[in-house]
Amino acid sequence: MPRSKRRAPNEMSSTDEDRYSSKRIRNSNSSSRRFQRLDEPNTFSQKKCLAWFREYTSPDEPDVLGPEGMEKFCEDIGVEPENIVMLVLAYRMQARQMGFFTQEEWLKGLSELQCDSIQKLQGRLEQLRCMLNDQHTFKAIYRYAYDFARDKDQRSMDMETAKAMLQLLLGKHWALYTQFSQFLDQSKYKVINKDQWWPVMLDEFVEWLKAARTKTDIS
Fold first, then answer.
1. What is the dihedral of CA 38, 43, 49, 51, to 10 degrees?
2. Do 175 and 212 share a domain, yes or no?
3. Which domain of life does the UniProt lineage start with (predicted)?
């Protein structure tokens, strides 16, 4: 009988290779599960998001976050209520009334943003601000702001509210805003309707600015 061939110390049989491969796959799968568990806190939880919403509502109106809750919410995320990023957030939620978020609006907006905690939303604030840099999105937010800010009992927006909203939208982004503010101050408007908000009022401003510059040139 021929003598059995002895394997070199580092040499593996096909059976040993199969065992080694299987062990390596099991270890790999175990590592993947371990990393997955570490990543799980970054996944969105609707239940957690809803519990977060409830922190800002009252037992009398559990499905509506009102002005008092909004103030606490803004404080928690470190943003002033008048900051334009709050308008962008409301736009993402498609909130219907300024100073209020319904449960449906809250879940819609924050599920799209994948945010179910203060920390996660804080990490998205810069992204929300950057939405204003896109011309198409800015126009959509500008149009949205009219119905969002106006008194729902009125068909038009009062001039004081309109000026505050226009300052928020255009004050830091439009080089001609100082002249536009002067135009609003001297205008005959007491209220602003939707057509005037976009684009009638801006067309009238252009005509006013041309006339003012012509008058200055003549002088």
1. -30
2. yes
3. Eukaryota
CB 64 within 8 A of CB 102: yes
Residue 126 and residue 111 in contact, taking contact as beta carbons nearer than 8 Å? no
The CATH number of residue 167's host domain is 1.10.238.200
* CA–CA distance, 153 with 168 (Å, rounded to integer): 23
- What are 136's two structure tokens? 């198409």
Q: How many domains does the chain have?
A: 2
Domain range holding 171? 153-219
Residues for the chain: how many in total? 219
Burial class (CB in 10 A: 0-12, 13-18, 19+), 17: exposed
Going by their DSSP bridges, the two strands 191-192 and 64-65 should be labelled as unpaired
> Is residue 4 assigned to a domain?
no
Alpha helices (H) along 78-176: 84-93, 103-113, 118-122, 125-130, 135-149, 159-170
Mean pLDDT for each 10-residue chunk of the chain (219 residues)?
Answer: 42 47 45 39 88 96 96 97 96 96 98 97 97 95 95 90 95 92 90 90 93 77
Nearest to 114 by CA among 179, 173, 48, 54: 48
Match 């005959």 to its residue by tokens. 188
